[in-house]
Specification:
Strand content: under 5%
Family: Belongs to the major facilitator superfamily. Sugar transporter (TC 2.A.1.1) family.
Number of helices: 24
Protein name: Solute carrier family 2 facilitated glucose transporter member 1
Keywords: Glycoprotein, Membrane, Sugar transport, Transmembrane, Transmembrane helix, Transport
Order of helices and strands: HHHHHHHHHHHHHHHHHHHHHHHH
Structural class: mainly alpha
Mean pLDDT: 88
Shape: globular
InterPro entries: GLUT, MFS_dom, MFS_sugar_transport-like, MFS_trans_sf, Sugar/inositol_transpt, Sugar_transporter_CS
GO molecular function, one term: hexose transmembrane transporter activity
Number of strands: 0
Radius of gyration: 23 Å
Length: 485
């Protein structure tokens, strides 16, 4: 680990690497977050339009229950698309390449934006539904392949930094989507379709230079066996004068290509006992990130702010403020990943989030009996969001690229992304019902999830910062008998 550090004292931020990092993050990750965040604020206006459109087209009026069911379908079909896109990410990444997957995402996002923009003029609820499904496919593909692509084009010293770009981009996109869907911007009865499709501007700007983007050198070398092309792409990324660094990376790729772990299909990865523990870690981190309650917190925060005495409008602005705090802390992610150990950050983040979630449940239960508990609950929500972005937020996005070597990596990242979208769907469907049944205690399972993730990290996650995956993989190859500390 020490020698690796010495060879990378000055991280290789070449112009091409900067272009790839920021263009793919804004074009892919921010667009994904945007599609998540934009749908909530104009929901009442869109429900009215859906009901009127169905009446005009089919002569039917939906009941309130039927309208709620239709809206749930519009929201959840995005998550279904995300799960399918994640599942297809492994095959697409290995067959077409990492860069090609990014281009496919851009095409899907573009089709979705066109459907969103014209669905109101065409008086078609079906176009809205299909558009949400298509951008869900694109978003699932982004979360499965973008962190992998960025970590594979980065030098070792920058892999954690670039790995967290996707998480920051999704968080930022949610905030941008919330802003664009405000009533003062595009969140009106006449302009909501502009809000849904406004991310197309990002797609155009960020995909224009995509012909300059390199393919992943590791993909070319290890998966495709094209040594010459891999060397050419490395020279473009690192610069012609970085011969020593390029030779070192090529030697690492050669060692990985000759290693025993060359399984790349879903069945092979699932059957390989050496990959069981890292696969469990990746899936638990991704699923646990959703089951830690972040989406439920944002779902519930408006009503908490209202209980604290804010008007509905001010509560919505306060909710936006919570989203901005989430984004602001996430911007520390690249620095934290460069200088802090993954194990320490993840355990600290999980422990603090668990404490704040338990406190939120306690305070909410007695909120009507103690006057200052409303303010205390707001502080706990902000505290939870603050510590969430130290580890729970960013680390699940890229931990698979640090635990797995290139051949099985795409399957692992797809499985993790699938776990994330599936758990997101479960929370979206079940949280309102559980909230009605359990009241304040609905936050206790989230707190327990954080405790379990903390224990999983403590006993089974090896430290990956500054280590090549070929060094890390043997540490977790004995399953739950592995001694990772």
């Amino acid at each position: 680990m020490g020698s690796t550090k010495n060879n990378n004292d000055k991280p290789g931020w070449s112009k091409l690497l900067l272009l790839v990092a920021f263009a793919t993050t804004f074009g892919g990750a921010v667009s994904t977050g945007y599609c998540i965040g934009v749908i909530n604020a104009p929901s009442k206006l869109m429900k009215i339009w859906c009901n009127q459109t169905l009446h005009d087209n089919y002569g039917s009026n939906l009941s309130e229950t039927g309208l709620d069911l239709l809206w749930s379908s519009i929201v959840s079909v995005f998550l279904v698309g995300g799960a399918i896109g994640s599942l297809g990410g492994a095959g697409a990444a290995n067959k077409f390449g990492r860069k090609a997957c990014y281009l496919i995402c851009g095409a899907l996002f573009s089709v979705g934006a066109v459907l969103f923009f014209f669905c109101r003029a065409a008086n078609s609820v079906e176009m809205l539904l299909i558009g949400r499904f298509i951008v869900g496919l694109a978003s699932g593909l982004v979360t499965a392949t973008l962190p992998m692509y960025l970590s594979e084009v980065a030098p070792l010293a920058l892999r954690g930094t670039l790995g967290v770009f996707c998480a920051v981009g999704v968080t930022g996109g949610v905030v941008v989507g919330q802003v664009c869907s405000l009533a003062d911007v595009f969140g009106t009865a006449d302009l909501w379709h502009y809000a849904l499709s406004a991310y197309m501007g990002l797609i155009i700007v960020c995909y224009l230079p995509s012909y300059l983007f390199p393919e992943s050198p590791k993909f070319l070398y290890i998966v495709k066996g094209n040594r010459a092309a891999a060397k050419r792409e490395l020279q473009r990324l690192r610069g012609e004068d970085a011969e020593e660094l390029i030779a070192q990376e090529l030697a690492e790729m050669e060692a990985e290509a000759n290693a025993k772990v060359q399984t790349s299909s879903f069945c092979d990865v699932l059957r390989d006992s050496r990959l069981l523990l890292p696969l469990v870690i990746v899936c638990c981190f991704h699923g646990g990130q959703q089951l830690s309650g972040i989406n439920a917190i944002f779902y519930y925060s408006v009503s908490i702010f209202e209980k604290a005495g804010l008007s509905t409008v001010n509560a919505q602005w306060a909710n936006l403020g919570a989203g901005c705090l989430n984004l602001a802390i996430s911007l520390l992610g690249p620095w934290l990943m460069a200088y802090c150990n993954r194990r320490t950050l993840m355990m600290f983040s999980c422990a603090m989030c668990s404490v704040f979630l338990f406190t939120i449940a306690f305070v909410l239960y007695y909120i009507d009996f103690v006057s200052w508990f409303a303010i205390a609950c707001i502080c706990c929500i902000m505290g939870y969001i603050f510590f969430y972005q130290f580890g729970l937020g960013p680390i699940p996005y890229f931990i698979g690229s640090e635990l797995f070597e290139v051949a099985p990596r795409s399957v692992a990242m797809s499985m993790g992304s699938l776990a994330s979208w599936t758990c997101n769907f479960i929370i979206g469907i079940s949280f309102p019902s559980l909230q009605n049944a359990w009241g304040a205690f609905v936050f206790l399972p989230f707190s327990i999830t954080c405790v379990l993730l903390c224990l999983l990290t403590k006993f089974y996650l090896p430290e990956t910062r500054g280590r090549d995956p070929s060094e890390v993989a043997p540490l977790v190859s004995n399953g739950f008998r592995s001694k990772v500390k």
